Amino acid sequence: MASKKFYVVWQGRTPGIYDSWQACSEQVQGAPGACFKSFRTEAEAQRAWQLGPDAPPVEPAATQVPVELPDEVACGEALAVDAACSGNPGPMEYRGVHLPSGREVFHYGPVYGTNNIGEFLAIVHALALLTQQGRRMTVYSDSRNALMWVKARQCRTTLPRNERTESLYQLIERAERWLKTHSYAGIPLRKWDTANWGEVPADFGRK
């Protein structure tokens, strides 16, 4: 089960803090100049509400990744990854969720990008994390494009490279370099069967 999120709406129909995407979306979908963001805890949301949308994060993105995954609890253990983008391109974030426990094991963003880029980076992040920790478990993604990009070891995005996207492109290049210099043999990559299984467990619930 996906982790609960809190949403801050700085500009929308009724600005405030909401504890579900459904409630948040009612305030921002179709609202001119809507400005909102999701947070992992209510405390982070309260802080962001008080400081405004340009406030720095509580901690840098690099420290958001737990040092270890949960211990194996069942056969067929797996990670699910997904990305979300408010507009395409727009504020993008991605994450990985441990399937048996429902625990979020990594999260990155939001940064300006596209959903496909986020899906690609999420898979590579999962592969790098599992390889670093010597773990072998299936990684599920609901993005056929991202799985193809990983197999080709290249992010085939058409997003323009400019001052706004330069930091994201550096992250893409780092991911591509990792794929070309590391082996992830023994870590199966699988397409999540949304039609039969429902939304991938790492889904951000913004559909």
Account of the protein in words:
This protein is an alpha/beta fold. Helices cover 32% and strands 24% of the residues. It is built from six helices and eight strands. The strands form two sheets. Strands 6-5-4-7-8 form a five-stranded mixed beta sheet. Strand 4 (78-85) and strand 5 form a beta hairpin. The longest helix is centred in the middle third of the chain and has 19 residues, at 115-133. It is globular, with a radius of gyration of 17 Å. Mean pLDDT is 82; it is low at 58-76.
What structural class do helix, strand and pairing data support?
alpha/beta
As a percent range, the share of strand residues is: 15-25%
Give the oligomeric state.
Answer: single chain
State the total count of DSSP E strands: 8
**Residue-averaged pLDDT:** 82
First-to-last CA distance: 17 Å
What sort of overall outline do the alpha carbons produce when their principal axes are compared?
globular
Number of helices: 6
SSE succession: EEHEHEEEHEHHEH
Residue share in helix:
25-40%
Radius of gyration: 17 Å
Uncertain runs with pLDDT below 50, 5 residues or more? 58-76
Biggest beta sheet summary: 5 strands, mixed
Strand order of the largest sheet: 6-5-4-7-8
